[in-house]
Specification:
heterotrimer; A alpha+beta (568); B mainly alpha (335); C mainly alpha (335); B: 335 residues; mainly alpha; 2 domains; two-stranded antiparallel sheet; disordered N terminus; C: 335 residues; 2 strands; elongated; disordered C terminus
Chain lengths: 568, 335, 335
């Protein structure tokens, strides 16, 4: 019996060890007693790449502004407002099924507006949008585009406001480009043998770039897909990896890139058909003998034949781009970008900023505009290591190259005519809203805070902190821009020069299937007999898939399998 | 205690019977609810179509009242269990034959590797050859650590550490020609997963065979040695027949587990593994039930999977009994 | 003298080609086990993916970075690594950096209660789940086995048969039914719900207890009864102490099994994540929080979580090795 007792004692010791660890781990969080006698407003913020710093800044200003306000609820009197921030990494999509959260104001992403209204989660904030904003004597509604109004206005009421802009694309390392001369030489002659002869370091000897105007920031950058891959060839020759992206989330991220390329190739009007299902599709076609042949006549797109949009030429072009990129393994680090389920997007950002353990550099990163903000910690370490912080390092947003020479020329022409030649796509479906079920006082203050966050002052502050923009119309002065990082400024420039695709629509089909139709699911065809969804990235890498087969498969899948289910 | 008559269900002293009934009440009640009840419920549910009266009261499958109607859809509908199993229909994006194919393949690989290796290793331990007791403890170690622990170590070691080591030792530090063994494109993912299953698979069986062998009397060996039987001969003619009963228990358990074996996919990748190249039926069933129930679908999602379970049981039971019968009929006897 | 000679001969006869091959295989096998554990431990002490990326299997050599004042030798990445190490050093004893942060920062977000559960709480849930279930399960098994063994009613025989039959019949896919039943009985998403659901007597351990109780001499109980002890006192005062060793071993095995189990807690007590479930979530997770100084999804952080999950089991294994490896080894212990 003694032996057993001893063992039981040892067992108890083991448990004690465990609880010891528990105690050491400690629930070190202090009780939140900051509110004092102030009225508490609880604000939820999606804890993603854009961070919470911008909200803390707004909170500080708001609390200061209202510190002497008297707020009476029942027999309790508060002095001032305390904004309690709740940053959580859960998207609205994951919260919507069981919406029991208790915050008052929400800044969220992947929020399917119509689902939220259907579920009665979002409060009517028409007065916030259409009323005069007391903080600036201006209506917030004026900052919305026509498409946004069309999307947000339901039976004369607003239930939310757009939040941040999530453009996806390519960022390049401008320092590296300058140092290594990754710019096309003015009037270069194409020479596949001596690639170096086509490039220059000299700032004054570069081509006019995608905008066709010499003397701008984009001089010497690739204008067409062909030029882009020639550039990649050259970069790889100089011992640098041309492109980089996350191996862990490659299918999601690279499909975003694919989607962004489609939008830029299609242009705003044609791209919007994918969400509105209402209008003339002018660039549909089919593959015949390996060639894309345009339809003789335009097709009128309705919700019933929306699958026809799978034949848009931009989708074919972008597939060609992806195929050329993925199939040439000198364009990226296969071990990180492809053969790796652990290389996360933050690791990828890190390598892009610092180089990798072998001290190899990465010239371009496939990422969203939020990446720089997301890499804030990396930049701070980098600054401490005397390698340069966010404001010192020069990274820049790359204007998308166009699929063909004709389209590149057309873009230059448009810009010369004062039109916009590029198209950016917002991928986040972000939303700012007030929750339903609040008492009158809280509701009033919540709405007030939302208005406060949408003043020009707040919007500019947001942009300066995150180096990205909010999906509202506002401009920054040159002086304000100068406080941003070089990357942030390049994003503003890109936005100014582009039409923006917001994945909004008043189409019933779209509203009922926002989850499917606004996301990368649009590009996952079930082409294999097993019905496994394949992605443009993995499939080009592993299956020997051609863009033509994928293009056809996508169409057949949409027409025969997917559309019927969506229409229901 | 005298031997009691077994003519009636209960006989003997009344006091004893009452005591017996009280003490057995809980185990029996538990069995009735959680074995018989569960299986009966499974059977009943498979003929139901369940729906919520007010879906807004449901929180990830919990809460809310349900109603139901009787139906055969779960079995014989267009995408019902039988259509899926026998009709080659795609459901949830997968074909039944792909899943069961992986399950059977995994079973065969285990039979051909883990079982013989386990037997041979236990023979080594039983013979108390050099280092036997250390080997015994080490072989047992992987089976007491959680599958999640071993799977996590294996997955990250293979995809992060291994290539670096191979690169440093054999390729002068260059890892660019090495592919990730878990990479779907390399066609090596399934093999890598099965290697893990073999690696951690035979610990328990080794201990059990070794303990069974230790019951063999030394005299048999001595007389065999006089006949000149050593090594392989000794193993085949003496040891194998004597552990056969334990082995057949293991084999039957393995056969019975074909449909539910997850080949540790969940431990390694969580619930989001999508590759048809390595997904077995057991993993599919667990993840689909869990996800469809909790993903907001709730109770109405369950009847179909119950029907699937019943249909699979109808196939698995005769098959298992057949294997059991065959093992008993054609196996060597212990005498 | 003669004895020694015999011994030598015996060793010689045992070292056949077969056993030499087996020895080599066993050594290789143990090497892989040890090396992967070594790798996991080494990695768990590294700071983050950046430091890990420099050397994916070696001993972390931070002094190399901290001592050399000539920063030019590292290159840009090296300088960055140096700063990361310096930052970590500011937080306290460097080797425990990752462990401390995982214990402090790793959380699981529950679906039903929308709670953020930290690692220390997961330990608590693990202990509650594993201890509770192993106790109810072992006790119920023991209870049923004793009464079936000692009271030879027909019903006892029936129970015995049921246990054997249930072990052979492969019933596939009862998970949906179990979920629906536990929801209806109000056991779903409670730790005590699983204590009840796991309090069954089915399985191999019933047969073991049964055999032991059957072979116990009846003299004690007869004597006790003559002294006026009731049936209940005989069971608790005499029978149970006699099987305490077996009871403890079964309890231990069950405890480890439930500690390692992650799939049951994941479905049936989602709001009370255990350590094993937390680890499984982390392995599949990509939810690193950008902008924070500690990336909980980095490979070193994952390995720290692995070590934290495995340590209690390893301690139990080392302390109770004899119990676990002894004669009572018949069931699998896989989580």
């Amino acid at each position: 019996m003694n032996g057993i007792l001893k063992k039981i004692l040892v067992g108890i010791c083991t448990l004690t060890f465990v609880f010891g660890a528990v105690a050491c781990g400690g629930n070190g969080k202090k009780a939140d007693d900051e509110a004092g006698d102030r009225f508490t407003l609880r604000v939820f913020n999606y804890k993603g790449g854009y961070g919470t710093e911008w909200l803390s800044a707004a909170k500080a200003r708001y609390e200061e502004l209202h510190k002497n306000d008297k707020i009476v609820v029942g027999d309790k009197e508060y002095t001032g407002v305390y904004v309690k921030l709740n940053p959580v990494k859960s998207t609205m999509e994951s919260m919507v099924d069981n919406f029991s959260a208790s915050d008052d104001v929400y800044f969220q992403e992947r929020a399917n507006y119509y689902t939220l209204i259907r579920k009665n989660i979002v409060e009517d904030i028409t007065d916030v949008v259409t009323g005069v904003n007391p903080y600036e004597d201006k209506k917030t509604e004026e900052k919305l585009t026509a498409e946004q109004k069309d999307y947000y206005l339901i039976d004369g009421k607003y239930y939310g406001l757009p939040h941040y802009a999530g453009y996806y694309g390519i960022t390049y390392n401008a320092e590296l480009f300058d140092n290594n001369g990754y710019y096309f030489k003015k009037d270069y002659a194409y020479d596949p043998v001596d690639i170096e002869s086509m490039f220059t370091k000299d700032k004054n000897d570069r081509t006019a770039g995608p905008d066709g105007i010499s003397g701008t920031d984009d001089d010497g950058l690739p204008t067409t897909y062909d030029e882009f891959f020639t550039l990649c060839d050259y970069i790889s020759q100089t011992g640098v990896y041309p492109m980089h992206w996350t191996g862990k989330h490659r299918n999601n991220y690279m499909t975003w890139l694919y989607n962004a390329l489609v939008a830029d190739a299609e242009g705003l009007d044609q791209m919007m058909l994918n969400y509105s299902f209402n209008g003339e599709a002018t660039d549909l076609g089919t593959i015949k003998d390996g060639q894309f042949v345009f339809d003789a006549a335009p097709t009128t797109i309705t919700e019933e034949n929306g699958y026809e949009l799978a034949r848009q030429v931009g989708k074919y072009y972008a597939l060609q781009f992806m195929s050329r990129l993925i199939k040439n393994q000198s364009y990226y680090n296969v071990n990180l970008a492809m053969n790796n389920d652990n290389h996360s997007h933050t690791d990828a950002q890190n390598y892009f900023i610092t180089g990798d353990p072998q001290n190899k550099d990465y010239a371009m990163l496939s990422e969203g505009v939020w990446w720089e903000s997301e890499a804030t910690y990396v930049f701070s370490v980098s600054e401490k290591a005397k390698l340069g912080g966010k404001k010192d390092r020069r990274f820049a947003w790359m204007p998308f190259p166009k699929p063909t020479k004709e389209l590149a020329d057309l873009k230059a022409q448009k810009i010369a005519n004062g039109e916009k030649g590029s198209t950016l796509t917002d991928v986040h479906n972000s939303l700012a809203f007030v929750r339903t079920g609040l008492d009158e006082t809280t509701k009033k203050i919540a709405k007030d805070f939302l208005m406060f966050c949408n003043t020009d002052e707040s919007l500019v502050e947001y942009t300066q902190i995150t180096d990205t923009t909010k999906s509202l119309q506002y401009t920054l002065t040159e002086e304000q821009k100068s406080k941003m990082s070089p990357f942030g400024r390049s994003v503003i420039t890109a936005q100014e020069n582009s039409d923006i695709v917001y994945t909004y629509s008043s189409s019933k089909l779209y509203q009922n299937n926002q989850e499917e139709l606004s996301t990368v699911y649009n590009y996952y065809p079930s082409t294999t007999s097993t019905g496994v969804k394949s992605h443009p990235v993995d499939t080009f890498y592993s299956d020997g898939m051609t863009p033509e087969t994928y293009f056809n498969g996508l169409y057949v899948y949409n027409r025969d399998s997917r559309w019927g289910a969506l229409i229901k | 205690m005298k031997i009691k008559s077994e003519k009636k269900m209960f006989s003997g002293k009344r006091k004893d019977i009452i005591y017996y009934c009280i003490m057995m009440a809980w185990p029996v009640l538990q069995f009735v609810i959680f074995y018989i009840g569960v299986n009966f419920n499974s059977f009943v549910m498979s003929f139901q179509k369940i729906s919520y009266i007010d879906i807004s009261k449901v929180n990830h499958g919990v809460g809310g009242e349900t109603t139901f109607t009787w139906t055969l859809e779960n079995y014989f509908g267009e995408y019902g269990a039988f259509a899926w199993i026998f009709g080659g229909k795609i459901r949830d994006g997968v074909l039944f034959r792909d899943l069961i194919g992986i399950s059977l393949r995994s079973f065969l690989i285990t039979i051909c590797t883990s079982v013989p290796l386990g037997l041979l290793f236990s023979y080594y331990i039983f013979k108390k050859l050099p280092g036997w007791s250390a080997f015994r403890a080490i072989l047992f170690l992987p089976s007491i650590l959680s599958a999640v622990v071993m799977a996590a170590i294996y997955r990250f070691f293979v995809s992060e550490g291994l290539n670096q080591i191979i690169g440093d030792v054999f390729l002068g530090g260059d890892t660019s020609t090495l592919t990730n063994l878990f990479d779907p494109a390399g066609k090596t993912r399934y093999g890598t997963i099965m290697a893990f299953n073999i690696w951690i698979g035979f610990g328990t069986s080794v201990i059990m065979y070794a303990n069974k062998m230790s019951g063999i009397s030394q005299e048999i060996f001595e007389s065999a040695h006089l006949d000149g039987a050593t090594g392989i001969k000794e193993f085949i003619h003496i040891v194998f027949p004597l552990v056969y009963s334990t082995l057949s228990v293991f084999l039957i358990t393995m056969v019975a587990g074909i449909c539910s074996n997850q080949i540790n996919l969940y431990a390694m990748f969580g619930g989001t593994f999508t590759g048809a190249d390595a997904k077995p039926l057991g993993y599919y069933l667990y993840t689909e039930v869990k996800n469809s129930f909790r993903g907001g679908g709730g109770l109405p999602q369950l009847p179909y999977y119950s029907a699937l379970g019943i249909a699979l049981t109808l196939i698995a039971v005769p098959f298992t009994l057949l294997v059991k019968w065959a093992l008993e009929k054609f196996g060597p006897s212990e005498d | 003298m003669k004895k020694e000679l015999n011994k030598k001969q015996a060793t010689k006869s045992r070292l056949t080609p077969l056993t030499i091959v087996l020895l080599v295989l066993l050594i290789l096998y143990c090497f892989t086990i040890f090396f992967s554990l070594y790798w996991a431990i080494i990695t768990s002490f590294k700071i983050d993916n950046i430091v890990f990326g420099v050397d994916k299997y070696g001993f972390p050599n931070y002094n190399k970075y901290l001592q050399n004042s000539d920063t030019g030798v590292y290159g840009r990445y090296g300088l960055y690594v140096r700063t990361v190490i310096e930052n970590a050093k500011e937080q306290g004893f460097l080797p425990f950096f990752t462990f401390r942060n995982v214990l402090d920062k790793y959380t699981v977000k529950t679906i039903y209660t929308q709670e953020t559960v930290s690692m220390p709480r997961m330990y608590l849930y693990s202990v509650l789940y594993a201890l509770g279930c192993s106790l109810t399960n072992t006790f119920t098994t023991c209870l049923a086995a004793y009464h079936c063994a000692k009271f030879r009613y027909k019903f006892s025989k029936l129970i015995h048969t049921v246990v054997i039959v249930v072990m052979i019949i492969p019933i596939v896919g009862t998970l949906p039914s179990e979920i629906s039943l536990s929801v209806k009985l109000g056991l779903f998403n409670h730790i005590w719900g699983l204590w009840i659901m796991r309090a069954n007597f089915l399985g191999l351990y019933f047969l073991i207890f049964y055999d032991i109780f059957k072979s116990l001499p009846t003299a004690y109980s007869e004597a006790a009864k003559i002294d006026g002890a009731s049936n209940f006192m005989v069971f608790t005062r005499i029978a149970l102490p006699l099987v305490r060793n077996t009871f403890f071993t079964v309890l231990l095995i069950k405890f480890i099994t439930y500690w390692n189990d992650y799939q049951t807690p994941l479905v049936f007590m989602e709001s009370f994540p255990t350590v094993a479930r937390g680890l499984n979530d982390l392995i599949a997770s990509s939810q690193n929080e950008p902008g924070s100084a500690f990336d909980v999804t980095s490979t070193p952080a994952k390995m720290s979580a692995v070590i934290l999950t495995a340590t209690p089991v390893v301690i139990l294994f080392l302390v109770f090795q004899k119990h676990l490896l002894g004669n009572l080894t018949m069931g699998g212990i896989k989580g």
